[in-house]
Structure formats: structure tokens, C-alpha cells
Amino acid sequence: MKKILLVLFVTIPFYSSAQNKDVQEILGVMENQTSSWNKGDLDHFMIGYWNNDSLMFIGSNGITYGYKQALQHYKDTYGDNSKMGKLNFELVRLKKISGDYYFMTGKWFLTRSAGDIGGVFTLLFRKIQGHWLIVVDHSS
Q1: Strand boundaries in the chain, DSSP class E
Q2: Does the reported pTM lie above 0.90?
Q3: Mean per-residue pLDDT for 16-39?
Q4: Which residue, 14, 51, 58, 104, is most buried by CB atoms nearer than 10 A?
Q5: Considering only CA atoms, which of 31, 18, 9 is closest in space to residue 96?
């Protein structure tokens, strides 16, 4: 019994530490996206996404696939500073669903001269080659 308790006391902090590192990295992706957006840099904003044809983006116009298509959507929709405005995210929930996946729910807000807008989002993060990347984005 003492051996089991010792293993638990050693394992639980390690697990929590690893999970906290993952959470911090994912939140860092969101911070980088906010900063990039607010500088008007959509190319850098997209670094948080999986650069792959299987990236799935779900928005008001339906489902699209591919990194290039998602970037083009952002450029077409928010191509100038009056449309981009200043981005802010509000995290509602971040849940680990496996060793390589996290599910995030939140709210997004754009404060802009063209009129403020906002909505909700769900993101699926996957750890790919040591980096947490968005593989599915559903924003409305």
C-alpha cells in the first residue's frame, strides 16, 4: 500500500505538470493569434493553425478544408484594418480529451470602426510534431 501511495504522489504532480505545460502552450497559441491579429498580420495569425489540406474550418458559409483556403477566407473577410479591428478572446472551457487532443470553447470579440461583432468558437487542438495546432475551427 505504501508503494502505491508513493507512486501516486510521484505520478500525479508529474501528470499535472505535463498537463499544465500543454495548457500554457495552447493558451500561448491564442495569445499569439490575438497579438498578430491586432497588428493586422493575418499570415502570422495563421501560424496557430495546422498547415495542411485537412485543416477544417466551419463558419457561416459552411465547411472548408485547407490552410490556404482558411487564410484566404480571413483575407477576403477581414482584409483591411477597419474590418479587422481589435480581437479579444474569452475562454469558456479547455478540456483535455486525449494525450494529443484538447477541445476549447470560447467567445470572440472584434472592436472595430466598421461596427463591433462577436460570436462563439470551438477549436480542436492536436499536438503535431511537438506543437499544439488548431486542426478544426468552428466559429460563428
Answers
A1: 56-59, 62-65, 86-98, 101-111, 117-128, 131-139
A2: no
A3: 90
A4: 104
A5: 18
